[in-house]
Design a protein that fits this description.
282 residues; alpha/beta; Arc Repressor Mutant, subunit A; D-Maltodextrin-Binding Protein, domain 2; 3 domains; five-stranded mixed beta sheet; three-stranded antiparallel beta sheet; 10 helices; 24% strand; rod-shaped; transcription regulation
């Protein structure tokens, strides 16, 4: 109908002319009507052929649109991902991880949401992000939390502080000094409060903050000592601070996603690569 000739149709469909001719004769035989008149090598559609084409044309257009859609969603330049993580992971772990994965998925584009640990579950259940990395298991019925590496807690002190000579630390070692602590509803705040209860001591709180970056900035100004997760007080960001491992303080990192919604193929690939790459940090 479009090509007007058998040879043109064969070229358009990338098949042989005899194959097109046989198919056309078979269709006319099955329908019991002529769809074309043959005139000097050309095909002239009959009224019945024209009517059938009008019905088939939208279907053909939908097939073309489907092909365009398949090409669009599988092209690398359309790889867009939305990921969430707490601030403790956003300063080093996520930038490092994204760079490693993106090298294997060139052209991908990532939107990173930096959220408190306690807000991450809400973002995933509302489908505002594809998945998240967090330092706790939210234990939510709509979420799947897959355990990954362990990340330790460290004491953060100025280089000239009396505690800076220690190779390992306990909360009991720190509690005699001014401390920058955290709000009780934060993950670090809950860890510290439990530790204070276990040793039956009250800290000398100089400043209370919500985020570890802020705590490290306070320590840098001589306002006390604090606790943070590894990879927060990095030397390139806080050159005047020393980090000392805290004994028995490993915290599990989790990859968290919605358990009732399948990941797209591209998101799944990014997710699996991230889970593999992050193991090299442990």
């Amino acid at each position: 109908m479009i090509a007007k000739t058998i040879s043109g149709a064969a070229e358009l469909l990338h098949v042989s002319q005899p194959g097109i001719s046989r198919l056309l004769k078979y269709m006319e035989y099955k329908l019991g009507i002529a769809l074309f008149e043959r005139h000097k090598g050309r095909l002239i559609p009959t009224p019945e052929g024209e009517e059938l084409f009008k019905e088939l044309e939208p279907i053909y257009k939908r097939i073309e649109d489907l092909d365009i859609t398949i090409n669009r969603i599988t092209r690398p330049e359309d790889l867009k991902f939305q990921i969430a993580c707490p601030p403790s992971l956003a300063s080093y772990v996520l930038p490092w991880l994204i760079a490693r994965v993106r090298a294997q998925m060139p052209g991908s584009s990532i939107k990173l949401e930096t959220l408190p640990n306690e807000d991450i579950a809400e973002y995933i259940t509302q489908r505002r992000v594809d998945f998240a990395l967090a330092l706790y298991n939210p234990d939510h019925p709509l979420l799947m939390a897959e355990p990954s590496i362990n990340i330790g807690m460290v004491a953060v002190v100025p280089f000239d502080h009396p505690l800076a000579k220690k190779k390992t630390m306990t909360i009991a070692d720190m509690v005699a000094y001014d401390m920058v602590t955290y709000y009780a509803e934060t993950l670090l705040g809950s860890h510290l409060n439990k530790a204070f209860e276990d040793i039956e001591r009250e800290p000398n709180i100089s400043v209370m903050v919500r985020y570890a970056d802020d705590a490290c900035a306070m320590v840098e100004q001589g306002l006390g000592v604090t606790v943070a997760f590894e990879y927060t007080a990095m030397p390139q960001r806080f050159p005047n601070l020393k980090t000392i491992p805290i004994k028995n303080s490993k915290q599990r990192l989790y990859f968290i996603r919605h358990n009732g919604i399948s990941l797209s193929n591209n998101v799944r690939k990014f997710y699996d690569l991230a889970k593999t790459e992050i193991r090299s940090l442990e």
